[in-house]
Amino acid sequence: MKIPFYLILIGLLFQTHLYAQDTGEDQLGAWYEITSSNKISKKLSLSASFTNWDYQLPADKEHLLLGIVGLNYHFNNNVIVGAGYAYGDIDSTFDVNDIPHTKENRIIEQLVLLHKSNKTSFSHRFRLEQRFLQFPTENILIHRIRYRFKVKFPLNKTLFISTYDEIHFNLNEFDFQQNRVFAGLGIKINKNINSELGYVRHSFKTKSFHRLSLQLNLKYDFRKKNN
């Protein structure tokens, strides 16, 4: 029996649609992050961050929880080096490799370069990571390098535009791992607190995801002030 061509076409389109749904690419997720940078001396600062990624709204079981603490040395106002530790609890079944629930211990080394042109602020962050991943059946060590270029442009004393692009490469066998592009609007709440709300396109080799991003940034100076 011959099957009409239009039925074959409909079947192929339906199958493709189902595959796209299974990848999670048509789902809108959310990324929430709190960061803190605290000056403790002329040259040293402590940093911390907590990240919660929900890969679908409303929140479901697919998520990433990541906490980072670090110590930074400021050569001057424009050059900073740091080292830190992170712990992650990851359900990455959304990912290209369909990896099950994973625990991660991560060591971080980074270099940050800052500069300004007129009112626009630029930052370059180079980061090395040693990722100790605990899978249900094995433990592996992955070395990764990432580079982030970020721009902040003030609209007035309160509002600013923020955007960045960050690319990641695995170093065990040098290979592209992922890329994140963000664009959003920031608000300066006071001299110590600002917030950013925007959109992230999170891309892997064969998939891209759409995320809303909400970030709260805290910055304090705990040095003793001279009277």
Give the arrangement of secondary structure elements.
Layout lengths: L4 H19 L4 E12 L4 E11 L8 E12 L4 E12 L11 E16 L2 E15 L4 E16 L4 E12 L4 E14 L4 E11 L4 E14 L6
Parallel strand pairs: 1-11
Antiparallel strand pairs: 1-2, 2-3, 3-4, 4-5, 5-6, 6-7, 7-8, 8-9, 9-10, 10-11
In words, what does this structure look like?
The chain is built from one helix and eleven strands; from the N terminus they run αβββββββββββ. It is mostly beta strands and 227 residues long. The protein has a single domain, classed as Beta Barrel (Lipocalin). It has an eleven-stranded mixed beta barrel with strand order 1-2-3-4-5-6-7-8-9-10-11. Mean pLDDT is 85; it is low at 5-22.
Question: What is shown here, in short?
Answer:
This protein is mainly beta.
Q: How many strands?
A: 11
Any idea what the radius of gyration is? 21 Å
Number of individual domains: 1
Q: Spell out the helices and strands N to C.
A: HEEEEEEEEEEE
The CATH level-2 architecture is identified as Beta Barrel
Quickly give the structural class: mainly beta
Strand line-up across the major sheet: 1-2-3-4-5-6-7-8-9-10-11
> The CATH topology is what?
Lipocalin
Gross morphology is globular
Low-confidence stretches: 5-22
Mean pLDDT: 85
The level 1 CATH classification is Mainly Beta
How much strand content do the residues show? over 45%
Largest sheet: 11 strands, mixed, barrel
Helix content: under 10%
The rounded distance between the terminal residues' Cα atoms is 94 Å
The CATH superfamily turns out to be Autotransporter beta-domain
